[in-house]
NAD-dependent protein deacetylase
Amino acid sequence: MSERPTTSQNKTKDENEAVAEGTDEDTTMDAIRKFFTQKLNLVTTLDEEDGANKKAFENLTFEGLCDHWKSKGFKNIITMVGAGISTSAGIPDFRSPGSGLYDNLQKYNLPHPSAIFEMDYFEENPQPFFALAKELYPGSFNPTPSHYFVRLLHEKGLLLRHYTQNIDTLERIAGIPDDKLVEAHGTFFTNHCLGCRKLYSMEWMKEQIFSDSVPTCEDCNSVVKPDIVFFGENLPEKFYTLPAKDFNKCDLLIIMGTSLEVQPFASLIDRAGPKCVRLLINRTKVGNDFGGIGAWFMMGPGLMFDNPKNTRDIAYIGDCDDGCLALAEALGWKDELSELIKREHQRLNKENADCKEKRAKEKSKTDDDEKESDETEEKPVDPKNKEKDAV
Ligand SMILES: [Zn+2]
């Protein structure tokens, strides 16, 4: 059992007694916490509102949650996700050693790995970012069962909002509509000129990236950047405007595939009201040890599934896809979800194949044109180069 460090050190007393009695330290910290709660308009799980101390349902386990969902239902579900929901699509997790993105950056000769996502560096030297973007370009990957589970929630009218840290656009590819999405760290879906702010489409950007050129604005010739949030940039406006409304309404928060280490995203978990059930689906237990001063300044006590005072937090430890499939099975949605995945993957695979074919045709046409112009200029042709061109 990993309990959050508390301010009360008296182990011989009953915990409730100790809390009721309190200490000067408790009082001071309570005052500080209340101050920040009010200033930042946060709802903390420690607030003693009506029913806040009552369990959401008797059996606080994954099975108990599924039973409660089947019998009582949820109406306003928020999903909150990180890289873990995309790893089974083949997209590397930034932070996993070995498979991580940062490990693949050596070839770009960066001053330090994170420079590739820093505005100052990008403005001087955008080429490494676009080379990496080509490697990781969304559209070469299919959404995962976890993405389609969220889409199913939407189709059933249960999805209030999907908050994602991912920039891979797999939510959009999975068919989750724009108004349901908060892409907290931005997206490749839209692109803007850094000079005049002209908007460019994903298709336009894709063509530029795959032709190995640094995309520049047709009007002012400045570099055009995908709307993913770089270090030193603000998060999208939706991230600041929607949570206050959403998290008050939310009755089930599903947190998937995130280490809950990146702020301010991680602190969203504490925006949920005291009665909102929170389900973590992740390979490891996270979000349950927000002790120390950080807890008081940034957020509430975190997820309480290992705490005897838990009233509504549940952890499913395993892969996101397995967790979603287990939920679907328990809710009687398994066939529907499998059908949806099968149908959508077939459609996307066909689209990708058509797109590759088109690109190959265009490339061979360009190569032919180049060869023709070489011949008309009557340059001496190096047979080695000619061979390379033809490949
Ligand atoms: Zn421009």
Q: What stands out?
A: The CA atoms of residues 198 and 349 lie 32 Å apart. The two ends are 60 Å apart (CA to CA).
